Amino acid sequence: MPALRSLPRSRPHVYVLHENDEWVVSLRREFEALGVPFAEWFLDHGVLDLASTPPEGVFYNRMSASSHTRSHRYAPEFTAAVLAWLKRHGRTVVNGPRALQLEISKVEQYEAMKPFGIETPATVAVVGREHIAAAADSIGYPVILKHNRAGRGLGVKLLFSRAAIEEHLSGDGFEESVDGITLVQRYIEAPAPFITRVEFVGGHLLYAVRVDTSEGFELCPADVCQAESVESACPVVTPGDKFQIIPDFEHSLVPAWQTFLAANNVGIAGIEFIVDAEGRAYTYDVNTNTNYNADAEARDGRRGMRTIAAYLGGLLSERAGIASAA
Asked: For 262-272, what is each residue's pLDDT tens digit?
């Protein structure tokens, strides 16, 4: 993967910042189909000379909260440094520093959504496993444990009693979040086993996906997740109809989600919510490194990565036009 010094500079490009090759395959294909010049900057490790100047173009941040599961422990921190550098030089960045903060912290997400009237499940953030049981008692059972910095359902465990909590904490199955923060969260019971993931590109609603949760909480929609083995870093999800795009999705929270994303400079995201038996909607996750499911898109006809490629290509044309006018 290219280092900074080897990124193309002959003309402006869309530069994709990421650390997972598999999640960029379909985006590459769409860039090529649309004729959008692009390059990739793999940010697992490297060198950033702060006295250097970034190439001209548009930078799209796809750093993932689950990077540590691919042995890229400090990729988000390195990306934060790169984004600060790009900001100083006035480059166009999609999903910049604030988006990265939201990607790697669910606490940041929940606190950022509340001013916009977006309800989240009751949650207690805990450092130290010795405090988890008391936090669960304060919320009431059942509860869900999850990692603050996660992705792909990492660390998610549904527990129904104090005894179950204590057994889980004393066993080998408990694993702390990479940032040390475990979230203890009220379990929202839905009348049917599914959640909804709402996709936004350029601040506009793309589509919503109904995701079957009957087999667990690992909800990554990327096609690669369906092909990997149980031993791999990304959990298996069942192929078929697990992901279904809703033909004509409408929800009263759409304007609030859009306003929240705009206020936090998030251009591309997937937002997940669940509805309880009383019809009350709880938003519990914001994915600024969103993926799409090819089977669901093939049945529907809409393509998320094509929309992203066109959006970024449009920003690149705007940037080139501004530079020419100057």
From this structure: 999 999 999 99
Kindly report, residue by residue over 170-216, the tens digit of the pLDDT. Answer: 998 899 899 999 999 999 999 998 999 999 999 999 999 999 987 76
- Spans of all domains in the chain: 4-103+307-325, 106-119+190-302, 123-186
Question: For residue 235, what pLDDT is reported?
Answer: 31
What is the CATH topology of the domain spanning 106-119+190-302?
A: D-amino Acid Aminotransferase; Chain A, domain 1 (3.30.470)
Whether 274 contacts 282, CB under 8 Å = yes
Q: At what angle do helices 304-325 and 25-34 cross, to 10 degrees?
A: 50
Helix axes 162-170 and 132-139, enclosed angle (nearest 10): 160
Q: What's the rounded Cα separation, in Å, for the pair 9 and 267?
A: 25
pLDDT tens, residue by residue, 293-303:
999 999 999 99
CATH of span 4-103+307-325: 3.40.50.20
H/E element, 165? helix 162-170
Partners of 147 in beta bridges: 182
